[in-house]
Structures are given as structure tokens and as C-alpha cells.
Amino acid sequence: SRISGRVKEVFVIEGTKVLAGAPLASLDSAELGKAQADISAVQARASFAMADEARKRDLLADGITSKRALELASQERRVAEAELRAATQRAQALGGGGKGKNLGVTSLVSPIGGDVVKVHVFRGQAVEPSYTAFTIADRSSLWVRLSVFEGDVGNIRVDDIVEIAAQVS
């Protein structure tokens, strides 16, 4: 998990095959909800700043306001747009999109395709960013460390059949 939160629902069980990016669980996060709510607030401020700048531009054209007032309105719009970009990036960094009807809800997704080897979470459990929620194994390739006596190296050929057993600790 990228953020702290509470597991809302688990979508997979051990043995499930998943693709990269597949949702594994959904998570409720107050931190993400706040970041998404901030987007709405900053969007409103940016919208007002854009309208104010347009109004000042019209007033300047009619000779009713000063060029300085237009410059200040333009600066306010640029600041609000920068804050909106920052708020959006903050929400995305926490694993959520922009604002939506489900504030604070995000999905934990598989970083790789493979098999779900272990599910370490359950519904209602609190998780932290350092917590490993799932173990996913890509078994498409396997590395094996092989020990061979020096005298037997000459007897090994490509395509030889090898029996492998897991080492129990």
C-alpha cells in the first residue's frame, strides 16, 4: 500500500492468477480523501480566478480598471492553476485519481502478472505503507542455484534432466 488506510474489500484469494495492474483489494484512506477534497477546493478557486481575470480584461478594454488589476488577476489564476496541478499530483501519488463520488477509496493493484501466493490482509484490517498486503510470484522463469562437484562438471550437458527439491530451513 502506498498509504495508510483500512481494507474495504479483498478481491483475490491464494492461487488466483492476476495480470499486472489487476485490482487485489480496495482501501479506504482518510489521507487520500483529504487530498481528493483539496482538488475540489482548489478547482473552485481556479475557476473563480479565471473568471475574475476575464472580467478584468473586459473592464480594462472598457477603460474601467487598471492594467495592474488585470496583472494581479492573471497572477492569481496562474497560482491557482499551479495549486490545482500540485493537488492532483498529490492525490495521484497517494494512489487515487482526481475527485470522485468515492473520496478516499483506492485499489491496491498487482505490480506484476503472476500467481497470488499469499494474502496478508483481510477486510477491515488497518494497513500502513510499509505493510506487505500480498505476495505475487511470477513463475514464468525460475532461477536455480546449482552446486556441482568440480570432477562432475565435464558430465553436465545442455538439456540434461535435473531434479529440484526445495531446501527446508
Describe this structure in words.
This protein is α+β, with helices and mostly antiparallel strands and 169 residues long. The protein is elongated. It starts with a strand and ends in a 32-residue tail after the last strand. The chain has helices spanning 30-61, 67-93, and strands at residues 5-10, 17-18, 23-28, 105-109, 114-119, 126-127, 134-137. The strands form 2 sheets. A 4-stranded antiparallel β-sheet has the order 4-3-1-6. The chain is built from 2 helices and 7 strands.
List the topology elements.
Blueprint: E1 5-10, E2 17-18, E3 23-28, H1 30-61, H2 67-93, E4 105-109, E5 114-119, E6 126-127, E7 134-137
Helix pairs in contact: 1-2
Main beta sheet: 4 strands, antiparallel
- Count of separate DSSP helical elements: 2
Helix content: 25-40%
- Strand percentage: 15-25%
Major β-sheet strand ordering: 4-3-1-6
User: How many beta-strand segments?
Assistant: 7
SSE pattern, N- to C-terminal: EEEHHEEEE
Rounded mean pLDDT score: 90
What overall geometry do the principal axes of the alpha carbons give? elongated
N- to C-terminal separation?
30 Å
Indicate the structural class: alpha+beta
Rg estimate, integer Å: 28 Å
Parts with pLDDT < 50 across at least 5 consecutive residues: none
Throw out a few tags for this protein.
alpha+beta; four-stranded antiparallel sheet; 7 strands; 169 residues; three-stranded antiparallel sheet
Short description, anyone?
The chain is 35% helix and 18% strand.
